[in-house]
Write a structure and sequence with these properties.
Elements (H helix, E strand, L loop, with lengths): L7 E6 L5 H14 L3 E6 L5 H8 L4 H4 L2 E5 L4 H14 L3 E6 L11 H17 L2 E10 L6 E3 L7 E7 L6 E6 L2 E8 L2 E4 L2
Parallel strand pairs: 1-5, 1-7, 2-3, 2-4, 4-5
Antiparallel strand pairs: 5-6, 7-8, 8-9, 9-10
Helix pairs in contact: 1-2, 4-5
Length: 189
């Protein structure tokens, strides 16, 4: 089974594990169902990777992807997504890729903007996937999600120690294994 975000999911990802690919796969699934997706990021996803992921999606479906690459001012993109949610009723998924810096603390203003986006998604009954880098707690308490506690379910995506192409998705203490391919994440049986 391939879990999809329902409500708000904060995907906290170990470096290089495919967080953007996970998000693109979720967006692709929604687009294939004829739904609209809002994608907020610093930089547009890699063109080659984007082409691989969307090769079997019709151009009319891909046109329903509202992509906003905002550079370092992710807060601008978040506020834009809030405005879109207030104006449009046909959005099924909002993805905010790399919403926090890779190091240091998240600013109070950014956290407040993200909380407003979470609340607006709840009002509109729109799924929200926010993606950030994971980090290991210096106190030995395991992996943590950047940005601090939010009103979201936290999923952790990591590499499997046994094999490089396998990813582990940790949801509420349950580990789901996937193989990462050109087409995205494929559940392992």
């Amino acid at each position: 089974m391939h879990p999809s975000p329902s409500g708000c999911v904060h995907l906290s990802v170990a470096a290089g594990c495919g967080g953007t690919t996970w998000g693109l796969q979720q967006a692709r699934n929604a687009l294939k169902e004829g739904k609209h997706v809002v994608w907020i990021c610093e930089e547009s996803p890699d063109v080659g990777r984007f082409s691989q992921m969307f090769t079997n999606v019709s151009p009319s479906a891909v046109s329903k992807l509202h992509l906003s690459a905002v550079g370092e001012n992710i807060e601008t993109g978040i506020n834009s997504a809030i405005s879109l949610l207030k104006a449009l009723s046909n959005i099924a998924l909002v993805v905010v890729d790399d919403w926090t810096a890779k190091t240091g603390k998240t600013t109070t203003d950014l956290r407040k903007s993200m909380q407003k986006l979470i609340e607006q998604c709840k009002v509109n009954q729109v799924s929200l996937l926010i993606i950030s880098s994971a980090y290991e707690d210096a106190g030995g308490d395991g992996w943590k999600a950047r940005g601090g506690p939010m009103e979201c379910e936290i999923w952790f995506l990591h590499r499997c120690e046994r094999e490089d192409r396998i990813r582990e998705l940790h949801i509420d203490g349950v580990v789901n294994e996937f193989t990462i391919t050109d087409d995205g994440f494929i559940p392992r049986t």
